[in-house]
Amino acid sequence: DAGVIQSPRHEVTEMGQEVTLRCKPISGHDYLFWYRQTMMRGLELLIYFNNNVPIDDSGMPEDRFSAKMPNASFSTLKIQPSEPRDSAVYFCASSATGEHSPLHFGNGTRLTVT
Amino acid sequence: GQQVMQIPQYQHVQEGEDFTTYCNSSTTLSNIQWYKQRPGGHPVFLIQLVKSGEVKKQKRLTFQFGEAKKNSSLHITATQTTDVGTYFCADRNAGGTSYGKLTFGQGTILTVHP
């Protein structure tokens, strides 16, 4: 099992540019989560999906952020336009069904917006 | 998910000393999951507690779930430099419209001085 795969590992972009982060969950997992991590705010849940359907997007900061899951093996998190305060590490995680299932995290994407 | 408060935020110990981090909630938790994140890494699942008063051990790590399921603790006996990292507790929602949602505590950053 390759685990959760995220790309890119690092992204440096200028303010105002569009950023797209990608995630491939573990095969067979039907939950997918997007988290953002900063020193100030810790691990924040942005949005999560079940069976490709967004369940809770209350953590999405504002309209500049959007997430999609077109199929069971792919999800994107898009920021348009990006701002310096979006600089953070973005993690994708997946899990099997059930409240007892652990989350498996990808290696994250470190985003720097200058 | 419910809000879980985790203390302390930081803990510095000498190698060989014990370490404990605590999670507290004002409401009953569905279950508690514990994760460890090494510096520069991603959160990795350690263990889950489900039952009231449950105690689980992993080598030098002891995990407890309170009788009222409103608090949990992680205790490390005789810390080693390999224990360095951030320890998170997390509550996974077991019901309602946000079923499956996983909300993290703020984490405790552990440093171990050799």
Overview features:
heterodimer, A: 114 residues, mainly beta, 7-stranded mixed β-sheet, 4-stranded antiparallel β-sheet, 11 strands, globular, B: 114 residues, 6-stranded mixed β-sheet, 5-stranded antiparallel β-sheet
Characterize the largest beta sheet of chain B: strand count, sense, and whether it forms a barrel. Answer: 6 strands, mixed
Major sheet characteristics of chain A: 7 strands, mixed
Task: Identify the overall geometry of chain A.
Answer: globular
Return the average pLDDT of chain A rounded to an integer. Answer: 95
SSE succession of chain B: EEEEEEEEEEE
Shape of chain B: globular
Structural class of chain A: mainly beta
- What is the H-and-E element order of chain A? EEEEEEEEEEE
Range of strand content of chain A: over 45%
Task: Name the assembly state.
Answer: heterodimer
What distance lies between the first and last C-alpha atoms of chain A, to the nearest angstrom? 36 Å
The level of helicity of chain A is under 10%
* Total helical segments of chain A: 0
Report the β-strand fraction of chain B as a percent range.
over 45%
Counting DSSP H or I runs of 4 or more residues, the number of helices of chain B is: 0
Q: What share of residues of chain B is helical? A: under 10%
**Mean pLDDT across all residues of chain B, rounded?**
93
From the N-terminal CA to the C-terminal CA of chain B, the straight-line distance is: 38 Å
**Protein structure class of chain B:** mainly beta
Largest interface: A-B, 24 and 26 residues
What does this 3D model show about the protein?
The complex is a heterodimer of chains A (114) and B (114). With 114 residues, chain A is an all-beta fold. Helix content of chain A is 0%, strand content 54%. Chain A has strands at residues 5-7, 10-13, 19-24, 31-38, 42-50, 53-56, 65-71, 74-79, 88-95, 104-105, 109-113. In chain A, strands 2, 4, 5, 6, 9, 10 and 11 form a 7-stranded mixed beta sheet that branches. In chain A, strands 1-3-8-7 form a 4-stranded antiparallel beta sheet, with no helix packed on it. In chain A, strand 5 and strand 6 (53-56) form a beta hairpin. The model of chain A has no long low-confidence stretch (mean pLDDT 95). By secondary structure, chain B is an all-beta fold. Chain B has strands at 5-7, 10-14, 19-24, 32-37, 44-49, 55-58, 61-65, 71-76, 85-92, 102-104, 108-113. In chain B, the strands form 2 sheets. In chain B, strands 2, 4, 5, 9, 10 and 11 form a 6-stranded mixed beta sheet that branches. A 5-stranded antiparallel beta sheet of chain B has the order 1-3-8-7-6, with no helix packed on it. In chain B, a hairpin with a 2-residue loop joins strand 6 and strand 7 (61-65). The chains are: A mainly beta (114), B mainly beta (114). Chains A and B meet through strand 4, strand 5, strand 9 and strand 10 of A and strand 5 and strand 10 of B.
